[in-house]
Specification:
With 229 residues, this protein is of the alpha+beta class. Helix content is 18%, strand content 56%. The chain is built from 1 helix and 9 strands, in the order αβββββββββ.
Amino acid sequence: MLIFSTKEKLIKKIFFAFLIVIFSISAVWAKDSEKKKAQSIVRDNEDNNVIYQGDMFVRGALGFDVPIFAHFYNDKSIGKNGAVLAPKQYGCPVGGNLDLSFLYFFENNWGVGVELAGELLQTKEKYQSIVALGALGGYMFRTWPFDTFLGSGLGLSFNSLYINGGDNLLYISFYFKPELEFFWNINKDWAVGFDTDYWIIPEIYFDNKKNQSSFTHFWSIGFAVRYKI
């Protein structure tokens, strides 16, 4: 017959209590892992072509801008509807752009988020920069492993014009742009593809500068990388 001292009995109780805690934690962890695995299997089996509520993505795109035309609607010197000028006529070259965005899906396939974009257009005499900050929303079509996003953006546009030997001008306006994104999912987290947008940016002036009021239209396209958070 073994006889334990009070200290030994206490150590024995602590040891058994520790084993019970470890066993309990292991059982809970195993059960939780099985539950998550089952949920994942159910979710994958339900529909692999669905972007689920709560999914979040961050995206970056790098590309170039192509000016299309500018409508100076108050300039009646050419016609009653104003002047529509080609890029060469108003000195706007092809430029580069960088676009970053975050998208949260509040419903299956429906997402909203924010975006930050920068554009740079340069000639020998001047260069123009555009920084756009706004909201983004749209619908994601998925046919695994491909995604197609149809959406639009709306927000503020900070337009800066720097002229060599002249004035530096800043105009704060707004922008609107429909957009199309196409992605190939490398895996569950990463995707690559392209992003294309049609930008409409107004500049509104009054009094003696009203003839300079315009709506500038340009198209952008770029290579995009997306990550699921």
